[in-house]
């Protein structure tokens, strides 16, 4: 029986709008009973999907629809508008969808179909080993199952817990806005249900590529047919006296995060050594918790090497307005004092006091277990466009991999979404795909109350072209080298950045003059850019 109106639950079919109210490519959110539905006409047919990105629950209607791809405005997860299928992380799940029927010129929506994780059937004698249970490792394991791999998946991770949301360690988890139970990427039963053998608290100590075996810290040996190396990195500690003193901390793991939270609760001040992304996010979060924050770093401005002086000055001034004290153009030479009353002595003779110290000095790729294999280079594991190492059955992804980007430039980047996307790509390659990795780099940070997002990679640039007003913290910046757009960053114009991301991915970047011309609609350019997802 069909009922009309908007006051019914979605176990029944509900009329939501007139068919001719919905134009191709112009999504809208409608009510179906108590539930909201993202309604869109794509390739002529009406589709009805869930309204929220499964990653951080952002409303997808605030994002973009490029062709048949729905893009979340927060961290640029992508979904296929035809069926809600997740096309690209950071979301791990598909969107819920609703069956649609057109009756007498009206759109009717049926009961929700919740996304189900596929369960591959059949026998496959192969064993795939994934070393490292972080962003890349988890995404790879899940992709193997999504793509139908029915063999054994061994996911070995040195940490004592199942994969979790690492970027949150310096943000809402530290300030208490995120609950600890939100941090694991998956529930306690997920891995067992998917037959992903999660081996926690054990480290791969050696790999034998010829024999295709891995030795664990527990002494066991695991044999594999194919392996993915996704071990991320280890935080750097400066080689200065006192760096190992009680109260000198690092931040990479959840355990590090818990130690940091305990220190923050016990002390009233902190010295942050390093003004990179982790240092500056900690400056915000620890300041929010009421600590006195002092930052020591060698550069003239925080993050100027990545974002340029103008954006870096904005960030510095916002941090200072929040009470952060900067000691820039200096390096630490010694940590002295007693627990709870430490002193960081500086290269210019200055001394900065703090209840504890955090070193945010970047990472070294975690490749120690590869000694003697020839798989690791001087700064990580070089891979080809399929993310395969020099060994035909061994792949690498994430912070540890030196991988070509969509423009073919090889680099090692340290971004959550890139690690997930590379993990997915490597999993497909392990299953036989020879497609080249074709995503644009992307990262985000949130500090001093400002959400900043960045697409591409510009290690150097000739010119930064701005749209909007940097000082008012509403801008889009394009980093140009040799006349070509290498990267773009934004605060406050995230949908335009999503458009740039698509243009970078498709190799259709705007010229310098086009970027400078506010009249040029980047969204329209991204919408016009092929290809569409096959319907
Ligand atoms: C505090 C913090 C905040 C961040 N914020 C952001 C952000 O806002 N945006 C962003 O884009 N990126 C952010 N990042 C970076 C992002 O977290 C990394 O790029 C991402 O985690 C890399 O994923 P990965 O899988 O390569 O490595 P990881 O996530 O580090 O996972 C590697 C795993 O492998 C394990 N491992 C290492 N060696 C071995 C071994 N020999 N045997 C077994 N297991 C091993 C490690 O213990 C770890 O669990 C942040 C990082 C940190 C630390």
Which keywords apply here?
535 residues, 19% helix, five-stranded parallel sheet, single chain
General description of the model:
The chain has 535 residues and is α/β, with parallel strands linked by helices. The strands form 10 sheets. It has a 5-stranded parallel beta sheet with strand order 14-13-12-18-30. The protein has a 5-stranded parallel beta sheet with strand order 20-27-21-22-23, covered by helices on one side. The chain has a 5-stranded antiparallel beta sheet with strand order 33-34-37-36-35, with helices on both faces. Helix 8 (494-505) packs parallel to helix 10. The longest helix is centred in the middle third of the chain and has 18 residues, at 304-321. The two termini are 31 Å apart. It binds flavin-adenine dinucleotide (FAD).
């Amino acid at each position: 029986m069909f009922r009309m109106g908007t006051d019914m639950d979605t176990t029944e079919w509900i009329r939501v709008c007139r068919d001719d109210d919905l134009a191709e490519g112009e999504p809208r959110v409608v009510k179906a009973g108590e539930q909201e539905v993202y309604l869109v006409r794509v390739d002529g047919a009406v589709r009805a999907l869930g309204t929220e990105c499964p990653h951080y629950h952002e409303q997808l209607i605030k994002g973009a629809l490029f062709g048949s791809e729905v893009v979340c405005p927060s961290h640029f997860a992508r979904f296929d508008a035809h069926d809600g299928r997740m096309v690209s992380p950071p979301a791990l799940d598909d969107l819920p969808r609703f069956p649609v029927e057109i009756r007498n010129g009206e759109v009717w929506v049926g009961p929700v179909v919740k996304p189900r994780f596929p369960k591959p059937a059949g026998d496959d004698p192969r064993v795939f080993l994934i070393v490292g249970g972080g962003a890349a490792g988890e995404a790879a394991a899940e992709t193997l199952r999504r793509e139908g791999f029915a063999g054994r998946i061994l996911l070995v991770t040195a940490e004592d817990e199942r994969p979790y949301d690492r970027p949150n360690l310096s943000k809402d988890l530290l300030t208490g806005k995120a609950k600890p139970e939100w941090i694991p990427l998956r529930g306690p039963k997920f891995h067992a249900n998917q037959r992903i053998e999660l081996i926690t608290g054990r480290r791969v100590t050696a790999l034998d590529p010829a024999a295709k075996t891995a030795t664990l810290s527990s002494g066991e040996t695991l044999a594999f047919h194919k392996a993915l190396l996704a071990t991320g990195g280890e935080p750097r500690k400066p080689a200065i006296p006192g760096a190992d003193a009680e109260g000198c901390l690092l931040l990479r793991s959840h355990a590090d995060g818990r130690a940091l939270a305990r220190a923050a609760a016990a002390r009233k001040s902190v010295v942050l050594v390093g003004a990179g992304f982790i240092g500056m996010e900690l400056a915000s979060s620890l300041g929010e918790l009421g600590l006195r924050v002092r930052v020591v770093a060698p550069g003239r401005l925080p993050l100027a090497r990545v974002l340029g002086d103008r954006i870096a000055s904005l960030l510095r001034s916002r941090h200072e307005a929040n009470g952060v004290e900067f000691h820039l153009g200096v390096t630490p030479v010694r940590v002295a004092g007693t627990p709870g009353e430490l002193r960081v002595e500086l290269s210019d003779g200055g001394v900065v006091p703090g209840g504890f110290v955090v070193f945010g000095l970047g990472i070294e790729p975690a490749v120690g277990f590869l000694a003697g294999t020839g798989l690791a280079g001087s700064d990580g594991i070089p891979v080809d466009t399929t993310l395969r190492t020099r060994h035909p059955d061994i792949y690498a992804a994430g912070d540890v991999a030196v991988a070509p980007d969509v423009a073919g430039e090889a680099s090692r980047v340290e971004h959550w979404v890139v690690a997930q996307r590379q993990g997915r790509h490597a999993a497909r390659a392990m299953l036989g795909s020879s497609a080249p990795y074709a995503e644009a780099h992307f990262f985000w940070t949130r500090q001093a109350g400002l959400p900043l997002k960045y697409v591409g990679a510009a290690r150097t640039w000739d010119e930064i072209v701005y749209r909007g007003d940097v000082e008012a913290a509403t801008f889009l910046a394009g980093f140009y080298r040799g006349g070509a757009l290498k990267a773009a960053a934004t605060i406050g114009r995230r949908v335009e950045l999503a458009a740039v991301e698509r243009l970078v991915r498709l190799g259709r970047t705007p010229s310098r003059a086009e970027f400078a011309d506010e009249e040029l609609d980047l969204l329209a350019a991204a919408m016009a850019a092929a290809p569409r997802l096959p319907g």
